[in-house]
Amino acid sequence: MNDRPPPRLEMLRFLERVQLKDLERTRRWIAAEEQREQERQRGQAARPPEPEWLLQESLGARHPVAVHVGGCHMAGKYVRPLARDQAVRALTDGIEACSHCRPETELGVLD
């Protein structure tokens, strides 16, 4: 039997092959991450603009509950966008203004 250790050059060539495979794998990971980032950016660019005003509706009967400034995190799940004149009309018709985002202040609607 040959119990001699492999020559140093063979060991270095083996190490090189292992490292090349590791490098290829790392490059695949980088390419996949770059693709995910590009898709995320495309998704953000394609997203419609946030509405300026929101009408929050009740869960069951779907009647108006409150008016919010667009993007208000207190608006809840059931909302629909409103144009400025619709938001003013809703507030003057007695629909509650959100006490957090204060749409009546933004719209200039006074009691």
Structure notes:
The protein has 111 residues and is an alpha+beta fold. The chain contains three helices and four strands. The chain is rod-shaped.
Brief overview:
Helices cover 48% and strands 15% of the residues. The protein is built from 3 helices and 4 strands.
State Rg. 30 Å
Largest sheet: 4 strands, mixed
Q: How many discrete domains?
A: 2
Can you count the helices? 3
Total beta strands: 4
Content-based structural category:
alpha+beta
Helix content: 40-55%
Helix/strand order, N-terminal first:
HEEEHEH
Strand order of the largest sheet: 3-1-2-4
Shape: rod-shaped
Index terms:
111 residues; single chain; 2 domains; 4-stranded mixed β-sheet; 3 helices; alpha+beta
What is the secondary structure topology, with strand pairs?
Layout: H1 8-46, E1 53-57, E2 64-69, E3 79-82, H2 84-92, E4 96-97, H3 103-107
Organism: Streptomyces xiangluensis
InterPro entries: DUF6233 (IPR046200)
Protein name: DUF6233 domain-containing protein
